Amino acid sequence: MFPVMNSAHKFNGIAFILMLAALLLYSLPKVVGFAKTQSPAEAAELFMSGQLLRQFEDYYDKGFFLRDPSIELWASAQYLLFREGSSGVMLGREGWLFTNEEYRLPNAYQQALDSNVAKIAAVEKTLKAHNKRLIVLPLPMKLDVYAEYASRTPNSRSQQLYGDFIAQLRSSRIEATPLRDAFLAQKDQQPLFLKTDTHWTPFGARLAAQELARQHPELIGSATYSSRQVAEKSLDGDLVNYLQFNRELAPERFTPSPLAVFETLKDNQEVSDAALFGDSEQPIMLVGSSYTKIDDWNFQGFLKESLQTDLQTTAVEARGPYYAMEQFLQGKQLQDPSITTVIWEFPLRTLLSEEPTTTGWQVAANQFF
């Protein structure tokens, strides 16, 4: 005997069929829209590699009409119940935000240090083979400098990380320029990091440049550069992107940070024939991450001012310091004999968040050894 379907079961069945039909009608334009983003050849290649379905899922998910309200509802509940932000951000006191990367102290602490220092040593060896001097410029972590604004106390060992890193670099005979003590000493005079961003302020960038020049006076040239503030603007901060709860619950956390805008100019504006035709030598190469790449911080300008010399730059945003160094080691500038010193801007949180890449530049380096 087959079970008899009562009215409640019929209603549930009809409702389920109607829901499936509605989702099908909603999804058809999404399928057509996704198809327009791919050529037949690209679609075939993605299908064979197994990436086509994954890309469609991502395309569909981002455009789903319930996605944003659902995320906001869940994030709001998480904030109200636990006073937590979304994954990627840690809420601090007085509107301060910190990246959760700076809380991730690896279990294999010494192994992480050894691995990174070994990669840096390999870079130093490659540069030395091309008659270039490497100076590592480790940038202290925001959480370390402004720990008093953290709502969750960081691991005590994370405050030792900077000193351990410097000590291990020096034990490997790699030149390093410490910045942590200077940042701790001057953090109350000017904001060195933005409250709602992972990066430093122009004042932090200027302090780093001044410290490098103070510790390496042999790099100071004879040109005269001057920096001046030309404007002020507001910056939302990259960490605000991780605040997905309703803004009305904590409007102070969404307040943009004021940012001073600086420009650096050479005092003598006369253009020589060598500079006009690109023949002037620039012996210093600055390699870095978004701390160097983003113009808002004016780190390149402050470094020119502090070292009183022009410089070349290889910097990549949102890829970390290893990627930028890989680009330099694979490029033509590695062979440039006029470049004698490479300054490597190296955020300390790289040790906690990134496994250093090796394949690209090591392949290039092997041909010299």
TrEMBL record:
It is found in: Cell inner membrane; Periplasm. It comes from the Bacteria. Pfam families: ALGX (PF16822). Belongs to the AlgJ family. GO terms for cellular component: periplasmic space; plasma membrane. The keyword Acyltransferase applies. This is Probable alginate O-acetylase AlgJ. It is a peripheral membrane protein. The keyword Protein transport does not apply. One of its GO terms (biological process) is alginic acid biosynthetic process. Pathway: Glycan biosynthesis; alginate biosynthesis. Keywords: Acyltransferase, Alginate biosynthesis, Cell inner membrane, Cell membrane, Membrane, Periplasm, Signal, Transferase. GO terms for molecular function: acyltransferase activity. Residues 89-347 form the AlgX/AlgJ SGNH hydrolase-like domain.
